[in-house]
Amino acid sequence: MNHDAHTLREFDAALSSLNTHLLQMAYKAQSALDLAAAGLLQQNESASNQAIAEDEELDELEMTVDREGLHLLAFFSPVASDLKVVLASIRMSSMYERIGDEAVTIAKRANKLNKRPRIREAAQADPVYREMAEQFRAVNKAVSSWDGKALAELVPALETLAEHAAAMTDTFTRLPEQYQDNLISVADLIFVGRSMERMAEGLQKVVAEALYAAS
């Protein structure tokens, strides 16, 4: 048996498994956003609870990506281009996990908000969510093929998304004067806004890492 050919097949299989698990993380994080948003905007408690319950799967996938990435580094000494993919995958898995954590925060806040009188300005999260969901899908599609051109084209749109999320949070911070009798809900909305800001920043970091790998 050709030892080099055997080793190459093992490496290709290990790298493919790493990419598969990273993409599973990507789409689970995207799903977590959708579920948390449904909890917030549609007052769908079961969707919020699902986002919270499925977070453990993201945590487990992150550990899997870390383990597989370290195995690739330790046993195969990948060449420069593959090395960048492995290193970027490990870092991206952490970013996707953090995005999932922010979705859990939104879901938990949504469950609390939905038990109190509704603050009409909560609806301002809807256009930001829709923009984020669209960009999330585009990011994950580009990551799935390490498409450097598509990733680079997403950078300006993600900068705009981050600005919109920050503006939404700023709007929420101006609400207390109008809702003196429901300040706790205002605080929950501010936390939601900050979580969406961090999710937008997380997508920017994912794209930066994927561009590093694709270059």
From TrEMBL:
Q: Which domain of life is it from?
A: Bacteria
Q: Which Gene Ontology terms describe the biological processes this protein takes part in? A: intracellular phosphate ion homeostasis; negative regulation of phosphate metabolic process
Domain spans labelled PhoU: 22-109
**Family note:** Belongs to the PhoU family.
Annotated protein name in UniProt: PhoU domain-containing protein
The species this protein was found in: Akkermansia muciniphila
**Lineage of the source organism?**
Bacteria, Pseudomonadati, Verrucomicrobiota, Verrucomicrobiia, Verrucomicrobiales
